[in-house]
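In response to reviewer comment 3 from the previous cycle, which asked for concrete evidence that the modeling workflow produces usable outputs, we include below a single protein chain processed end to end. The sequence was submitted unchanged, and the resulting C-alpha cells are shown without manual editing.
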Amino acid sequence: MKKLYLSLFSMLLISVLLVACSGTKSEEVDGAGAKESEVQEDEVKNIDDAPEDIKIEGIGDHYHTGDKIELTAVLDKETESGHWHWYSRENANEEWKVVEGQESEIFTAEATVNGLEVKAALFDNDNKPSAQSVPAKIVIDDHHGTDEESKKIYQGYFEDSQVKNRELSDWEGDWQSVYPYLLSGDLDEVLEHKAENGDMTKEEYKEYYTVGYKTDVDRILIKDNVVTFFEGDKEYSGKYESDGYEILTYEKGNRGVRFIFKLADGTEDMPKYIQFSDHGIFPADSHHFHLYWGDDSETLLKEVTHWPTYYPSNLDAAGIVRDMLAH
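The workflow returned the following C-alpha cells.
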C-alpha cells in the first residue's frame, strides 16, 4: 500500500513540475513577443530624430489598383551600414508601422491603398537610425472607376440621360502627343498586349494607330479657356467656348460623346472647332483625350480614323505605357 501511495505521489509531483515548466516557457515566449513589439515601437520613435538624407526614387505620378510599386532608397552619403527598414501608414493621423519582409533598399508592393505613405530608414551597427527619408505618398487613380457602371461607360455603353455637358476646364493642363512614342517603338508593349487579346496582329495595330495618332501638333496647353497648339517651334492660341456635344454610334454598336468647342477669339491659324473625346460622358477631369479639329464641325463628327491622342506632359514613356495597359 505504501508503494502505491509513493507512486501516486511521484506522479502528482511530476505533473506539477511539468505544468510549472510549461507556464515558465509560455511566459518567456510572451515576454519575448512583448519585447520585440516594444523594440519596433522604439525604432519608429527614434527615426524621427534621424536626418532626412535618404531619397526615394521610382515613385510614380499615380498608380492604378493592382499596379506593382517598386521604390529605391538612395543615401546621399557613403556608409558601411546596410540595415534597412521600411515603414508605412495609411494616413497622417496613424502611427508608422514596420513593413515586414522589406529589409533592403528596395521596396516592392501592390497598389491597393490610395494615399498610403511609406518611408525608409537606415540603421547603424548599433541598431540606431542614422538616416531616414521624407515620406512618399502612393496615389491611386483608376480614372474611370472600377465599378461595373464606370467600366460600361468607358466601353461606350450608356443612356442618353447620363450625358451632361462639360466645360473646357475638364481638359485644362499641359498635354503631349503620343505619336512620337508610337514611332519610336516605346508603345510596342501596348501593341503586343492588344494583339494577344484582340483580333489584329501587332503590325496591324501599329498601322491602325499610326493613322489614328498622326499629328504635327506635339503639345497642347489649355488654361482659362485658351487653347495653345505647339507645332515644332511655332505656337498658336485661341479662346474657345462650349458648343454643346454630340452622341455618336459606332459600327460595333457602342457609342461615344464628342464635346464641342468653337473659336471665340484667336489667330487665324487656330481651327474654328475642336472636339474632345475621352470616354467620359459627364463633368470630370480628363487624364487623356482624343482631339479632332477643323473649320467644319459636322465634317469632324464623321471622322473616326484620325484621332490625335494626348497624355499629360509630365508622363514619360513608361508612365504612358502603364496608363494604356490599365485600360
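The radius of gyration is 30 Å. We consider this sufficient to address the reviewer's concern, and the full set will be provided in the supplementary archive.
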